Amino acid sequence: MDKKKIKDILVDWIFDIIGGICYSIGVYTFAKMANFAPGGISGLALILNHLWGTPIGLTILILNIPLVLISYKVVGKRFLFKTARTMLVCTFFLDIVFPYTPAYTGNPLLAALYYGIFLGTSLTIFYMRGSSSGGTDLLTMTIKKFRPYLSLGAVTLTIDLFIISLGWIVFGDVDSALYGLAGTGVASLVINKVMYGADVGKMAVIITLDGQGVADEISSKIRRGSTVINAKGSYTKLERDVLLCACSKAQAYIVKKAVFDVDPKAFVMFTETSEVFGEGFISTLDKA
Description:
Helix content is 64%, strand content 11%. The protein is of the alpha+beta class and 288 residues long. The chain has a four-stranded antiparallel β-sheet with strand order 2-3-1-4, with helices on one face. Helix 2 runs parallel beside helix 7 (152-171). The protein is elongated and about 70 Å long. The protein starts with a helix and ends with a helix. 43% of the residues are buried.
């Protein structure tokens, strides 16, 4: 195993540990003690914990098993391997470490806000290393694969609203649903601000000396193709490759990292796109 691979594995573990701590602070320290269910699998796990006292981390892990099986062919072996490791780290902190730490028992609204901050931070950390905490991320990716014309945000919102509404019924208080909505909204805002969001909407324009190498690296990381154009600088008169790569907002960070891993002197620009048509995005037939 070469040094670069060893370094990548160590960095993955460091990110998983930091992200796992932030994830557990959000879910256990704030959401559990404030008696509200946010969106996602963590919200469902908190509901089951409230009803029957099931361990939160282990419940999240078990609920993820069918989602992993369903999404295996969609997200690929590499992503699922990293996600499985991330889920195990989160389970360790949720069920073994944080039950012995002080929990916040103050204002539930503040608990919801800080839940969102810590959860959004943790998910951003996971996404930066090409991983996730599992849950509705896997389900959303699978739905998006077979129904590419659907809005990723709308699919996620529908799932979250269902779980938050279920929490309203279980906790018997409309405030629990409002806190769940607030926490989920803050988490989404944190991710949007740090990683450009989670829906389609970015066009990467990359100027590099190694167009094919950069394109191969992007493809290996996120399975996105690139268009390579031969160009010449008007000032330097030097030959360069210009790559065009359409990606989701959540993938923009990974694209940028892939580019600079291959060519540290590359020039990268991201532009906003309102809609992207074609394979892997919105089908032109579905919009006709």
